[in-house]
Write a structure and sequence with these properties.
Two copies of one chain form a homodimer. Chain A is α/β, with parallel strands linked by helices and 279 residues long. Helix content of chain A is 42%, strand content 14%. In chain A, β7, α9 and β8 form a beta-alpha-beta unit. The radius of gyration of chain A is 18 Å and the shape is globular.
């Protein structure tokens, strides 16, 4: 099998065994959108309004439910309704980073009960494989998928080099539940020295990439931006994550226009990638 | 000035400029307790009851408020009352691990408003220095202190070697707000190649150490345990963090007995450390 980079999203959906990864790949193909919008606002009403506006243009919404001041669990019901109405998946960007026993509680319990509604969540590999075991004990029976942070988009990040390789190795050992990475590029072959090449060719990790922007180069707290073309075509990533670049400006019509703009750019970069590889 | 390891907690309190670090060191000296109890239960009533029982024996309580199912903000008022009643500080073990803009919101806002009640919190250095800038923008005006995770106690952790050195270097560049580390040993001299030795001798990072237990060697999800003596005397750490080893067994009298047992062990190890160094 050729590298996942050379396949269409639909082809990859057929081959994937994890229910969340399969659903995401199918959604991307069906909606012609590899756009994930990251909605970091602090009021329920803004949160739901923005998601309703961008819904038609996205495959995935990325949330930080713990920044919402007037959170009530009924907001999750509204979010699930929007997910059904507009056909997108939900990704709570929790960045779990604790030992197995603790993350299992944080994932399943508490006010947010993330595992009950978020198709995909993510974790830092720092604590070691126990974090995957802990999250998988909750998420696998529910058909959820986990994204590991192999790299970050922020300035001076320590997620590079040997750290990144170890993250990928940890993911490879848990391919049923770990469906991909937060990374700036494809991870094909990373940390794979000495492994069987046939086995490697069959692996399909989704690459979700933050720090995507068309109009800004960075913020004052170390975030750095690249364009959809750089991310999808040049670096071979699968999903572009855009935040303030979409919802940060103007009224609903502006937000809608920005969402469509990013969807179009991200999809064009993917189509070019596929055509380049085919020629 | 000699290494912090050679000084009493009271001497270190006098020299420290960060209000949270100063208060913690004073509390340790006043209560003759370097014990932090980590309370990971999922019901408000259990949470408050355990803290009321262990309160007299601890300098610090470590919380994961996001695992409490029936959380209401009034629980925080009760926690603050217990903190005043029993004279201990509060450490929300949030393990922030996102970019600066996001962690600033997660720290100050949302349901939990952590910065409004937690004297100390912690963060992974992975995202780069922006995470400190983001948290400091909220915490410094409130007199809070930040602990960086330089190491972890779990099996297969990636927080070692160059990662740990970079964490310490990041802390050194923000000594007003970063007051110490989660680590398994002192960080004196780590990542300090080429730095001025007088300046280094004046630094005083608190070392808070998880994975402490007297009766167990580990759990099924990769947590590993060492004794208070190993941690405080041999490795020079300042605060021992104990969880299920204290509250995991029996009734209130048992919990109280375990808390006093760990307090005594931790304090004896500290007194031996000081006397060994003085002789």
């Amino acid at each position: 099998m050729p590298s996942a980079r050379l396949l269409t999203y639909a082809q990859r959906a057929e081959n994937h065994h994890n229910p969340a990864a399969k659903a995401l790949l199918e959604t991307i193909g069906r909606k012609k959108s590899n756009l994930c919008v990251s909605v970091d606002v602090t009021k329920q009403a803004d949160f739901l309004r923005i998601i309703d506006v961008v819904g038609p243009y996205i495959c995935l919404v990325k949330t930080h439910v713990d920044v919402i001041e007037d959170f009530e669990f009924s907001m999750i019901d509204r979010l699930k309704e929007l997910s059904a109405k507009h056909d997108f998946l939900i990704f709570e960007d929790r960045k779990f980073a604790d030992i197995g026993n603790t993350v299992a509680l944080q994932y399943s319990s508490g006010v947010y009960k993330i595992s009950s509604w978020s198709h995909i969540t993510n974790a830092h590999p720092i604590p070691g494989p126990g974090i995957i075991t802990g999250l998988s004990s909750i998420g696998t029976p529910l058909g959820r998928g986990l994204i590991l942070l192999a790299e970050m988009s922020s300035k001076g990040t320590l997620a590079s080099g040997a750290y990144t390789s170890q993250a990928v190795q940890m993911a490879r050992a848990h391919r049923d539940f770990v469906i991909g990475f937060i990374a700036m590029r494809r991870m094909d072959g990373v940390g794979a020295e000495g492994l069987d090449s046939t086995d490697l060719a069959n692996e399909d990790f989704l690459i979700l990439t933050p720090g995507v922007g068309l109009d800004a180069k960075g913020d004052s707290m170390g975030q750095q931006y690249r364009t959809p073309r750089e991310v999808v075509l040049e670096s071979g990533c699968d999903v572009i994550i855009v935040g303030r670049g979409i919802y940060g400006k103007g009224n609903d019509a502006d937000i809608q226009a920005q969402a469509e703009r990013y969807r179009k750019e991200g999809w064009a970069a993917y189509e070019e990638r596929i055509s380049v590889q085919a020629s």
